[in-house]
Recover the amino acids of this structure.
């Protein structure tokens, strides 16, 4: 396992090439091309804003106004997270012709899915910056120093889950169908459309704390939306350690099952 993990760094040129290919292939043939990376988060934001301000007005407290900015702070990283897991779960089956090549490192495929969606997350950041300049121009430099830390923790967590899902989905195809429903439940069990201290009915504080994405969402909100220092930093650092262990476990599981992939895809 450790040998293969060390080899992963040597494949960085291949990973970069596959991520670039994935980004180009996603919008090939579309009129707007890469502009969809900016338009998609805006459309998603518009839908949620319409639902919770027009269809269901008064469902959020005044303290999270402007609500559009509060939503965007959570929806943008969640889109990276959920899209990565959905694509990673199917990555080995979609790349079966590559896996059957003896020298191809199969773990690259779920990692490419995560990194490609991370790039779309970065493409959406200029939209978030415009929101910040308009609604909250007083964000401090110290707060922004935490932003790459949160991104790094999310990257570790997502890659660990992506490796586990990719390895298991090859043997249990039902996971791919269950995942979309699980992610929908996970979304509403995460304080993205509501603040953490005002949880939805039936969702207790302990459930929210057990949800790893809670601590990412709250950290993004504290950095980008709320005034004041990052009060969630202890939870974030604890999640960083847990995410590192999850990544190692995910790679271990993937490495144990890799010999069976060529036969199953």
């Amino acid at each position: 396992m450790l040998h293969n993990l060390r080899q992963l760094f040597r494949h960085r040129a291949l990973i970069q090439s596959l991520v670039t290919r994935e980004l180009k292939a996603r919008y090939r043939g579309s009129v707007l091309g890469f502009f969809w990376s900016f338009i998609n988060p805006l459309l998603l934001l518009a839908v949620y804003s319409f639902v919770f301000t027009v269809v269901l007005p008064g469902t959020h407290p005044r303290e999270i106004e402007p609500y559009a900015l509060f939503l965007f702070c959570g929806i943008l990283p969640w889109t990276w997270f959920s899209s990565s897991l959905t694509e990673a779960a199917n990555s080995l089956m979609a790349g079966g012709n590559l896996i059957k090549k003896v020298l191809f490192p199969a773990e690259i495929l779920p990692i490419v899915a995560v990194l490609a969606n991370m790039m779309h997350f970065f493409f959406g950041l200029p939209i978030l910056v415009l929101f910040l300049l308009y609604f909250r121009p007083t964000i401090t430099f110290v707060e922004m120093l935490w932003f790459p830390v949160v991104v790094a923790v999310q990257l570790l967590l997502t890659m660990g889950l992506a490796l586990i899902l990719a390895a298991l989905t090859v043997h249990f195809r039902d996971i791919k169908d269950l995942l979309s429903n699980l992610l929908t439940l996970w979304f509403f069990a995460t304080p993205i459309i509501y603040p953490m201290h005002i949880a939805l009915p039936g969702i207790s504080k302990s459930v929210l704390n057990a949800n790893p994405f809670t601590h990412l969402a709250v950290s993004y909100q504290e950095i980008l939306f709320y005034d004041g220092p990052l009060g969630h930093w202890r939870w974030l650092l604890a999640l960083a350690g847990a995410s590192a262990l999850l990544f190692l476990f995910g790679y271990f599981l993937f490495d144990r099952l890799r010999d069976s992939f060529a036969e199953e895809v």
About this structure: The chain has twelve helices and no strands.
